């Protein structure tokens, strides 16, 4: 499988450290608010990546953190802890907020068929691990204490900017206007590993540490949790592109300094979902959630399809019109699948050819839009319905669009409607018209059609025979 690696800035053949298991780490949500559909674009594409790796035959062990402490309002280590901000907004405790929005996040993931990672670890559960890592960094001379906080010293590194091909907007995140300088920092890019001197006296969660009562920085959480469950070597680390700097840059700095060797081989970054006014973000206050889409009548699967139709390394512009198009495409796709007949023989050669096209799309840097095209190719293929259904079931292990279940639901609904409107008298009249036509008695056939029309019944001639519906 070829994947674009943000670290080398090129597509590379993916090769895990061990053939037995792919070790995959995902930056989880900061649970101070609902996830917006931009966050969920990232999680959908990471879900597809995991499932594509499994499809290729790899066993995957995937870990995700839950950020429930230490993520400050600004990535430059200033501002309020986002969790505290959420707690104040809703007049609840930080832990109540964390639990509520963690549950809400996984409920959204469920609706979008995003599989739960094998391990989900809230940061507040690993404080001892973070402290041990900070101690190690201090011992090795990569960190210093200033003003009560512990900082990572970026001047000790040969190379700090490892993802230097981002556009300016992404790089500017850490140095947004209105962000005050932390004068304890020796170098502009130094970052906090452990806070004790939060200027917010009301920081809710604090723990004892060798440097005083305090709390961990956001970046150390992901390094610590990843190493706890996946060891010293990571195959692939994922996140949204805004995480590349400073979050992932800092993760690499501290992890490799701590370990004394390379840490993670592949970095997978999903580009943003934007609206016409820019990046969708929680801090802007107004954002779209899955529940909101549902309340407007959209099936979450339409949003998943919308995401799959574009490549993860391109910004995706959200508009209601674009979502409508995806919703219509999804409905049509499902309606088409609903016409396929169960049973019959699978043409193994044809199935293999269809699968090859699908795998080819995934292998080319997770080209999900081509993978969706491969779905349409199945429907157009000159092969048996059984083969088509087998191919669709196979592809849906990665795309997770509920295709067969949704098609079944459509069929059942149609059958129920047909049963509800069944009328033997009209069936008999339609049959009599068919007989009259066969006997070339067109006057009688027309008379029956007109009689039915007067009763609000329309006859539809199909290749399978005459059908009728109420109009
Ligand atoms: P957060 O909950 O803010 O920590 O973010 C969760 C994930 O969503 C991270 O991987 C972010 O990089 C990603 N993310 C944030 N905003 C967007 C966006 N507008 N489009 C896509 N991904 C995003
Ligand atoms: Zn992270």
Task: State the secondary-structure class.
Answer: alpha/beta
What fraction of the residues are assigned to beta strands by DSSP? 15-25%
* Side-by-side strand order of the widest sheet: 5-4-3-10-11
Radius of gyration (CA) equals 28 Å
CATH class of the largest domain: Alpha Beta
Q: The biggest beta sheet, please?
A: 5 strands, parallel
**Strand elements, count:** 16
Judging from the principal axes of the Cα atoms, what is the shape?
A: elongated
CATH topology category name of the largest domain: Rossmann fold
CATH superfamily of the largest domain: HUPs
Helix content: 40-55%
**CATH architecture classification name of the largest domain:** 3-Layer(aba) Sandwich
Q: Output mean pLDDT.
A: 92
End-to-end Cα distance: 53 Å
Bound compounds, each kind once, are: adenosine monophosphate, zinc ion
User: Which spans have pLDDT < 50 for at least 5 consecutive residues?
Assistant: 168-178
Given the structure, what is the number of helices? 16
Number of spatially distinct domains: 3
Describe the protein.
- This protein is an alpha/beta fold and 471 residues long.
- It has 3 domains: 269 residues, HUPs (Rossmann fold), CATH 3.40.50; 118 residues, no CATH class; 50 residues.
- The protein is 46% helix and 15% strand.
- It is built from 16 helices and 16 strands.
- The protein has a 5-stranded parallel β-sheet with strand order 5-4-3-10-11, sandwiched between helices. It has a 4-stranded antiparallel β-sheet with strand order 6-7-8-9. Strands 13-12-14 form a 3-stranded mixed β-sheet, covered by helices on one side.
- It is elongated, with a radius of gyration of 28 Å.
- About 2% of the residues have low confidence.
- The site of zinc ion has 3 residues, from loops.
């Amino acid at each position: 499988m070829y994947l674009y690696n943000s670290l080398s800035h090129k597509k590379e053949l993916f090769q895990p450290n061990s053939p037995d298991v792919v070790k995959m780490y995902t930056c989880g949500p900061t649970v101070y608010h609902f996830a917006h559909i931009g966050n969920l674009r990232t999680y959908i594409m990471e879900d597809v990546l995991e499932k594509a790796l499994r499809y290729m035959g790899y066993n995957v062990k995937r870990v995700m953190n839950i950020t429930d402490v230490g993520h400050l309002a600004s990535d430059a280590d200033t501002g309020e802890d986002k969790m505290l901000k959420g707690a104040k907004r809703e007049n609840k405790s930080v832990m109540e907020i964390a639990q509520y929005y963690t549950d809400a996040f996984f409920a959204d993931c469920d609706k979008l068929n995003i599989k739960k990672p094998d391990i989900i670890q809230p940061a507040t559960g690993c404080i001892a691990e973070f402290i041990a890592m900070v101690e190690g960094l201090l011992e090795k001379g990569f960190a210093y204490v200033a003003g009560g906080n512990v900082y990572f010293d970026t001047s000790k590194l040969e190379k700090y900017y490892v993802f230097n091909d981002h556009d300016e907007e992404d790089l500017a995140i850490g140095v947004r206007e209105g962000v005050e300088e932390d004068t304890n920092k020796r170098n502009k890019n130094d970052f906090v590993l452990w806070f004790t001197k939060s200027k917010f006296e009301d920081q809710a969660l604090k723990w004892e540490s060798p440097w005083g009562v305090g709390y961990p920085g956001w970046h150390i959480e992901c390094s610590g949790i990843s190493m706890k469950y996946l060891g010293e070597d990571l195959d692939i680390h994922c996140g949204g592109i805004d995480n590349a700097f400073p979050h992932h840059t800092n993760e690499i700095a501290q992890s490799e300094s701590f370990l004394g060797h390379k840490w993670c081989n592949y970095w997978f970054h999903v580009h943003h979902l934007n609206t016409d006014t820019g990046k969708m973000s929680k801090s802007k206050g107004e954002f779209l959630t899955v529940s909101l889409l549902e309340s407007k009548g959209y099936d979450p699967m339409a949003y998943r399809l919308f995401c799959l139709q574009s490549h993860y390394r391109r910004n995706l512009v959200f508009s209601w019109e674009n979502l409508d198009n995806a919703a219509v495409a999804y409905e049509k796709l499902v309606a088409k699948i609903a016409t396929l007949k169960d049973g019959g023989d699978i043409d193994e050669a044809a199935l293999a050819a269809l699968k090859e096209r699908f795998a080819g799309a995934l292998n080319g840097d997770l080209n999900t839009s081509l993978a969706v095209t491969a779905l349409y190719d199945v429907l157009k293929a000159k092969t048996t319905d059984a083969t088509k259904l087998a191919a669709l079931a196979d592809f849906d292990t990665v795309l997770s669009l509920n295709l067969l279940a949704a098609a079944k639901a459509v069929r059942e609904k149609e059958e129920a409607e047909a049963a509800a409107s069944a009328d033997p008298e009209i069936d008999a009249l339609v049959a009599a018209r068919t007989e009259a036509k066969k006997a070339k008695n067109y006057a009688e056939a027309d008379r029956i059609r007109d009689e039915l029309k007067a009763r609000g019944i329309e006859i539809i001639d199909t290749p399978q025979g005459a059908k009728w519906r109420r109009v």
